[in-house]
Amino acid sequence: MSANQETATRVPPGQTLTQGFPVLHYGSVPYYNDMSLWNFRLFGLVEEEVTLSYQEFIALPRQEFRNDIHCVTTWSKLDNVWEGVAVAEVMKRVKLKPEAKYVMLHAEHGWTTNLPLEDFLKETSLFALKHNGELLTPDHGYPVRMVVPHLYFWKSAKWLRGIEFMASDKPGFWERNGYHMYGNPWKEQRYDFD
């Protein structure tokens, strides 16, 4: 298979490759002056709520992940290298109630997005701290960004602050504003009418 053919199999329909890393978000970019005020919550359908401080979170074991990302606005970026914390590592710290089937990602400014629990728990999903060897910039989600590479990139919430475990699916910010509830780039699930 040629390089062009291989690339074609990695780029979903309607997407265009970019070498850059476009910045897209709603609202202002949060800047943190005092990381002692930052924390990360695991709550909802859990036996006991867990809150990690910034120091506790960045001390978690890290690993490297490589993936392609696809934005709903039609750009794709291949061969990203992330350093971060595997979802499985964070999940060691919490016990879910059996009725938990979905998660809501909670980020700064009240921003949210939903995921089925099975997608959140995939081995490819991670909490990113670095991208291509550099700490995330504020524009790209510093200090922690969710990365769910098999879905459109709006599901990879920037400025993540917590995970809520839920029994049923409900829309997050963009989903309430017309985006698809799931967001599979290979099926072009961009908007709720797709």
Automatic annotation (TrEMBL):
UniProt superkingdom: Bacteria
One Pfam family hit: Oxidored_molyb
The Oxidoreductase molybdopterin-binding domain, residue ranges: 27-174
Stored InterPro entries: OxRdtase_Mopterin-bd_dom (IPR000572), OxRdtase_Mopterin-bd_sf (IPR036374)
PANTHER family in the record: OXIDOREDUCTASE MOLYBDOPTERIN-BINDING DOMAIN-CONTAINING PROTEIN (PTHR43032:SF4), PROTEIN-METHIONINE-SULFOXIDE REDUCTASE (PTHR43032)
Name of the protein: Sulfite oxidase-like oxidoreductase
Protein source organism: Paenibacillus vulneris
